Amino acid sequence: MKKTAALTCIAACGVSLLTGCSSTSAKTEPAEKQGAAQTENSDTQKGGGAPVEITFTVWDYGTTDYWKVLVEAFEKENPDIKVKVTDIGGTDYDTKIPVLLSSGDTSDVITIKSMPIYTSLVEKNQLMPLDDMVEKSGLDMAPYYGSDEGIKIGNQLYGLPFRNDYYLLYYNKTLFDKAGVDYPSNDMTWDEYRELAKKLTSGEGNDKVYGSHLHTWPGSLYRWGMDKDHAMDKGDYQFLKPVYELFLGIQNEDKTAMDYGTLKTGNVHYSGPFYKEQVAMEPMGTWFANLIINAKNKGETSVEWGAAKAPHFEGQDPNIAISNPTPIAINKNAAHPEEAWRFIQFMCSEPGADLLASLGTLPAYQNEKTINTLVNVEGMPEGFKEAITVDSFVLECQMIPQAGAVDKIISEEHDLIMLGAETIDDGLDNMAKRIQKLLNK
């Protein structure tokens, strides 16, 4: 694998970016009601006593394929620990977790869905620092390729990276073949992408096929302007102007992508147009590969797909990815911190990473074995290894208490720009003024 440990934390993490892997909102309930693993084998318990029960709080347990597999594997390997899963619907998760921990709840393991919540929980002293546990366990941190360093706050680590997602370019092979156009390369500029989208757009009305799909999340746009010199917390957002000009040009001038207002009003999930073969190309996170494979296995789509590195602007390095980690943390008031550590160490290091990769999801903990496991999953397209191989990451996150408020401002101004309610210059200027005012409080 070609990676360096150079990561930089440079932007407010959009809440929506980590919701991509699931879209179901379920009632909060213990997942054992859904058939969660509850291994009980008293004859094999370490020490001969009853197992210690730890509570694992997570979102969309019942609708995400890997949680149950990982819990069952952990319990099989650790018969002295029983995992009770508290499943909270993805839509409500970031609202309910702060309330839960503020009440003095003693749940042990907390899955972090968005980085604004992570920074807020650390600021409120609700997560346990893990540095001593890491050192005592001798856990090798090198396979995280710096994603662990990127999520440190005050030089302390409050979670282990479980996933570390970044964007690829997904494409419909059938539509490319019909148009007689070569598949995207791993070194394509946004100008080339725009021209390619024109060649792949055809039809009218309900039968129209769009060459491009640009999702509505703000991070699906601003990430393309980011690098180690340009961040979303610096008070100057003019570096995003070329990105907005590109996206609005594709939408309004070329009409090679569905318009933002339609997508927003219709609450269109990014997977729908791709599954229905209404779009030829779509930039989306690495988690999408897992969703496509599962959808095909369930007969929900017959799309023949491929993946390449995401497009880049001229002068940008295609082998530097803007990534977004998903940490798993321990509650400061955990009833069983030692057992909780054993659980998250399993989930977030090689045992869990191998299982995660075997299900088609990219883990944060990566070595040659996990990557080969991932790319050889049945249904994974040829060339996927080349598409996901990068030299280094830049983390799309901002480790400040105001991260959630910054994200809200960015989302509001992004809406206005994309809907044409304000010009690009005015929107970026308003974004800068509002965020600077917030950070100066």
TrEMBL record:
Biased composition annotated in UniProt, kind: Polar residues: 36-45
Q: Which InterPro entries match?
A: Bact_solute-bd_prot1, SBP
Q: Does the keyword Lipid metabolism apply?
A: no
> What does the UniProt entry say about where the protein is found?
Cell envelope
Q: Which domain of life is it from?
A: Bacteria
Note down the stretches annotated as region Disordered: 28-49
GO terms for cellular component? cell envelope
Q: Name one Pfam family in it.
A: SBP_bac_1
Its main localization is other
Whether Acetylation counts among this entry's keywords is: no
Which residues belong to the signal peptide in this entry?
1-26
Enumerate the UniProt keywords alphabetically. Signal, Transport
PANTHER family per the UniProt record, alphabetical: ARABINOSE-BINDING PROTEIN-RELATED (PTHR43649), SN-GLYCEROL-3-PHOSPHATE-BINDING PERIPLASMIC PROTEIN UGPB (PTHR43649:SF31)
Q: Which family does it belong to?
A: Belongs to the bacterial solute-binding protein 1 family.
Write the protein's name.
ABC transporter substrate-binding protein
Native species: Lacrimispora celerecrescens
> What is the taxonomic lineage of the source species?
Bacteria, Bacillati, Bacillota, Clostridia, Lachnospirales
